[in-house]
Design a protein that fits this description.
This protein is mostly beta strands and 174 residues long. It is built from 2 helices and 11 strands; from the N terminus they run αββββββαβββββ. It has a single domain, classed as Lipocalin (Beta Barrel). It starts with a helix and ends with a strand.
Amino acid sequence: MRMLFAAAAAVALAAPALADDVKLTGDNTKITWVGTKPGGKHDGGFKTLTGTATVLGDGLAKVVVEIDTDSLYADDPKLTAHLKSPDFFGVKNNPKATFTSTKIEKTDKGYTITGDLTLNGKTKEIAIPAEVSHAGGTLKINGAVSIDKRDFGMTYGGGKIDDQVAIKVAVEAK
Protein backbone atom coordinates (compact mmCIF):
# COMPACT_ATOMS: atom_id res chain seq x y z
CA MET A 1 0.00 0.00 0.00
CA ARG A 2 2.83 2.37 0.91
CA MET A 3 4.41 1.65 -2.48
CA LEU A 4 1.16 2.57 -4.24
CA PHE A 5 1.04 5.96 -2.47
CA ALA A 6 4.71 6.58 -3.27
CA ALA A 7 4.10 5.79 -6.95
CA ALA A 8 1.03 8.06 -7.04
CA ALA A 9 3.00 10.89 -5.41
CA ALA A 10 5.86 10.48 -7.90
CA VAL A 11 3.44 10.66 -10.84
CA ALA A 12 1.72 13.73 -9.38
CA LEU A 13 5.04 15.51 -8.88
CA ALA A 14 6.24 14.64 -12.38
CA ALA A 15 3.02 15.81 -14.06
CA PRO A 16 3.30 19.22 -15.73
CA ALA A 17 1.47 22.14 -14.13
CA LEU A 18 -1.89 22.82 -15.68
CA ALA A 19 -2.33 25.98 -17.68
CA ASP A 20 -5.14 28.32 -16.68
CA ASP A 21 -6.64 30.82 -19.15
CA VAL A 22 -7.66 34.15 -17.62
CA LYS A 23 -10.14 36.21 -19.66
CA LEU A 24 -9.06 39.78 -20.39
CA THR A 25 -11.72 42.47 -20.94
CA GLY A 26 -11.96 46.25 -20.90
CA ASP A 27 -13.17 45.92 -17.29
CA ASN A 28 -10.08 44.14 -15.95
CA THR A 29 -7.44 45.31 -18.43
CA LYS A 30 -6.46 48.94 -19.03
CA ILE A 31 -4.38 49.96 -22.03
CA THR A 32 -3.48 53.64 -21.88
CA TRP A 33 -1.09 55.86 -23.78
CA VAL A 34 0.62 59.23 -23.56
CA GLY A 35 1.56 61.15 -26.69
CA THR A 36 3.77 64.20 -26.44
CA LYS A 37 4.53 67.29 -28.47
CA PRO A 38 6.60 70.38 -27.81
CA GLY A 39 4.85 72.18 -25.00
CA GLY A 40 2.41 69.48 -23.99
CA LYS A 41 1.04 65.97 -23.91
CA HIS A 42 -2.20 64.08 -24.45
CA ASP A 43 -3.49 61.05 -22.56
CA GLY A 44 -5.85 58.38 -23.77
CA GLY A 45 -6.49 54.69 -24.10
CA PHE A 46 -8.89 52.02 -25.32
CA LYS A 47 -12.15 51.05 -23.63
CA THR A 48 -12.97 47.76 -25.34
CA LEU A 49 -10.78 44.68 -25.69
CA THR A 50 -10.92 40.93 -25.37
CA GLY A 51 -8.25 38.32 -24.86
CA THR A 52 -6.66 35.69 -22.70
CA ALA A 53 -3.60 35.40 -20.53
CA THR A 54 -2.45 31.85 -20.01
CA VAL A 55 -0.99 31.28 -16.56
CA LEU A 56 1.27 28.28 -15.98
CA GLY A 57 2.03 27.70 -12.31
CA ASP A 58 3.04 31.08 -10.92
CA GLY A 59 4.31 32.30 -14.30
CA LEU A 60 2.82 33.64 -17.49
CA ALA A 61 2.85 31.45 -20.63
CA LYS A 62 0.96 33.45 -23.29
CA VAL A 63 -0.98 36.67 -23.84
CA VAL A 64 -3.39 37.36 -26.71
CA VAL A 65 -5.35 40.62 -26.90
CA GLU A 66 -7.69 42.08 -29.51
CA ILE A 67 -8.53 45.79 -29.17
CA ASP A 68 -11.54 47.52 -30.70
CA THR A 69 -9.82 50.59 -32.19
CA ASP A 70 -13.11 52.51 -32.34
CA SER A 71 -13.07 52.43 -28.51
CA LEU A 72 -10.02 54.74 -28.59
CA TYR A 73 -10.37 57.86 -26.45
CA ALA A 74 -8.23 60.91 -25.78
CA ASP A 75 -8.38 63.79 -23.33
CA ASP A 76 -9.79 66.02 -26.10
CA PRO A 77 -12.84 65.07 -28.24
CA LYS A 78 -11.36 66.65 -31.39
CA LEU A 79 -8.16 64.65 -30.87
CA THR A 80 -10.18 61.45 -30.39
CA ALA A 81 -11.86 61.99 -33.77
CA HIS A 82 -8.52 62.81 -35.45
CA LEU A 83 -6.82 59.73 -33.99
CA LYS A 84 -9.60 57.55 -35.44
CA SER A 85 -9.02 59.03 -38.91
CA PRO A 86 -6.69 57.61 -41.59
CA ASP A 87 -3.96 60.00 -40.33
CA PHE A 88 -3.51 57.63 -37.37
CA PHE A 89 -5.52 54.47 -36.59
CA GLY A 90 -7.86 54.49 -39.60
CA VAL A 91 -10.48 52.64 -37.55
CA LYS A 92 -12.84 52.24 -40.52
CA ASN A 93 -10.28 50.10 -42.37
CA ASN A 94 -8.51 48.78 -39.25
CA PRO A 95 -11.23 48.03 -36.68
CA LYS A 96 -8.96 45.81 -34.58
CA ALA A 97 -5.48 46.07 -33.13
CA THR A 98 -3.87 42.91 -31.76
CA PHE A 99 -1.04 41.75 -29.56
CA THR A 100 0.07 38.11 -29.48
CA SER A 101 2.99 37.13 -27.32
CA THR A 102 5.71 35.04 -28.93
CA LYS A 103 8.02 34.72 -25.93
CA ILE A 104 7.72 35.44 -22.21
CA GLU A 105 10.92 35.48 -20.14
CA LYS A 106 11.44 35.86 -16.42
CA THR A 107 14.07 38.53 -15.66
CA ASP A 108 15.72 39.92 -12.52
CA LYS A 109 13.11 42.71 -12.43
CA GLY A 110 10.02 40.73 -13.46
CA TYR A 111 9.19 39.57 -16.97
CA THR A 112 9.70 40.59 -20.57
CA ILE A 113 6.64 39.89 -22.71
CA THR A 114 7.72 39.87 -26.36
CA GLY A 115 5.15 39.67 -29.12
CA ASP A 116 3.67 40.96 -32.33
CA LEU A 117 1.71 44.21 -32.11
CA THR A 118 -0.54 45.02 -35.06
CA LEU A 119 -1.80 48.61 -35.34
CA ASN A 120 -3.13 50.38 -38.40
CA GLY A 121 -2.59 47.22 -40.46
CA LYS A 122 1.16 47.08 -39.67
CA THR A 123 2.82 44.47 -37.43
CA LYS A 124 5.98 44.99 -35.38
CA GLU A 125 7.60 42.93 -32.64
CA ILE A 126 7.76 44.74 -29.30
CA ALA A 127 9.11 43.75 -25.89
CA ILE A 128 7.21 44.91 -22.81
CA PRO A 129 8.99 44.87 -19.44
CA ALA A 130 6.35 43.91 -16.88
CA GLU A 131 5.67 42.93 -13.31
CA VAL A 132 3.53 39.79 -13.15
CA SER A 133 1.95 38.12 -10.15
CA HIS A 134 -0.63 35.38 -9.79
CA ALA A 135 -1.79 34.92 -6.25
CA GLY A 136 -5.13 34.21 -4.64
CA GLY A 137 -6.69 33.54 -8.04
CA THR A 138 -5.91 37.05 -9.32
CA LEU A 139 -3.52 37.74 -12.19
CA LYS A 140 -1.81 41.13 -12.10
CA ILE A 141 0.30 42.49 -14.93
CA ASN A 142 1.78 45.99 -15.00
CA GLY A 143 3.92 46.88 -17.96
CA ALA A 144 5.07 49.85 -19.99
CA VAL A 145 6.69 50.27 -23.35
CA SER A 146 7.42 53.06 -25.81
CA ILE A 147 6.63 52.54 -29.49
CA ASP A 148 7.45 54.60 -32.55
CA LYS A 149 4.18 55.53 -34.27
CA ARG A 150 5.97 55.62 -37.64
CA ASP A 151 6.53 51.83 -37.38
CA PHE A 152 2.76 51.53 -37.74
CA GLY A 153 2.37 53.91 -40.68
CA MET A 154 1.42 56.90 -38.51
CA THR A 155 3.51 59.71 -39.94
CA TYR A 156 1.13 62.64 -39.51
CA GLY A 157 2.54 65.65 -37.65
CA GLY A 158 6.23 64.97 -38.26
CA GLY A 159 8.20 67.48 -36.20
CA LYS A 160 5.07 68.75 -34.43
CA ILE A 161 4.16 65.52 -32.65
CA ASP A 162 6.77 63.27 -31.02
CA ASP A 163 7.11 59.93 -32.77
CA GLN A 164 7.48 58.00 -29.49
CA VAL A 165 4.26 57.06 -27.71
CA ALA A 166 4.30 55.62 -24.18
CA ILE A 167 1.91 52.71 -23.61
CA LYS A 168 0.93 51.27 -20.24
CA VAL A 169 -0.86 47.99 -19.61
CA ALA A 170 -2.50 47.18 -16.28
CA VAL A 171 -4.31 43.89 -15.70
CA GLU A 172 -6.11 42.76 -12.57
CA ALA A 173 -8.14 39.72 -13.55
CA LYS A 174 -9.54 36.74 -11.67
